[in-house]
Amino acid sequence: MKKLAEPLGVGCGCMLGALVRYTCVSFLASFLLAEIIILVVNLSGCFLFGIFKAAFSTNKVRQKFLTTGFCGGLTTFSTLMLGSTTLFLQQRIFWGGAYLVLTLLLGICAVYFGKKLGQIKRS
C-alpha cells in the first residue's frame, strides 16, 4: 500500500488543483480577461510550488501531493498556449508575446521566491 501513496496523492492533489483553477476561472470570468486569470493562477501555482518544494523536502509523499499534484492541476500549460495562440491569431502579436514572456519570467521568479519563503518557514 505504501507504493500507492505517492501516485494516489498526486492524483488527488491534481484533482483539487484543477477544481481550484476551474472555480477561479468560472468566478472571475465576468470581471477579467481569461488570459489575465490564467496568468494569475499560473503565477500563484508557481509561487506555491516553490514554497511546497522547499517546505516539505523531508516528506516526499506530501511534497508530491502538493507540487506535482495540486500545483500541476492548478497551473496549465495548455491554457497558456491556447491563450497565446488566440492572441496571435487575432493579430494581437504584442499581447500574445507579452503574455508568454510575462508568464515565463514571472513564473521563474515566483518559483524562486516561493522556494526562498519555504526554506525560511522550514528553518
Show the helix and strand layout.
Layout: H1 2-28, H2 34-55, H3 60-74, H4 77-89, H5 93-122
Describe the structure.
The structure is a single chain. The chain contains five helices and no strands. By secondary structure, the chain is an all-alpha fold. Helix 1 (2-28) runs antiparallel to helix 2 (34-55) and helix 1 packs parallel to helix 3 (60-74). The radius of gyration is 16 Å and the shape is globular.
Radius of gyration: 16 Å
- H/E element string? HHHHH
Helix content: over 70%
Q: Helical segment tally?
A: 5
Count of β-strands = 0
Overall geometry: globular
Task: Give the rounded overall mean pLDDT.
Answer: 91
Largest sheet: none
Low-confidence stretches: none
N- to C-terminal distance: 32 Å
Structural class: mainly alpha
What percentage of the residues does DSSP assign to strands (E)? under 5%
List descriptors.
123 residues; globular
Question: How would you concisely characterize the structure shown here?
Answer:
By secondary structure, the chain is mainly alpha-helical. Helices cover 87% and strands 0% of the residues. Helix 1 packs antiparallel against helix 2 (34-55) and helix 2 packs antiparallel against helix 4 (77-89).
